[in-house]
Model the fold of this input.
Amino acid sequence: QRLEQLYLGDWRQVPAGEGLSAPGRQILHVTFGSVLAAGALGNELRSVLQAHAATYEELLACHFSRHLEALRAGL
Done:
């Protein structure tokens, strides 16, 4: 449940220019592929994402649009 809370935080409540910055989430963010390939943790993560597929899709769309907006702004 903690993994779910960290990774599927509510982007709608995060001010523009900021992000979900819990250290564990940031590590997961940059090692996502490796974590998915890891035994128990990968299984747990896939289970959370499958259980919340619509939320995950919404968060991905928001997340990537924030990255693209930052690139367009020259950040």
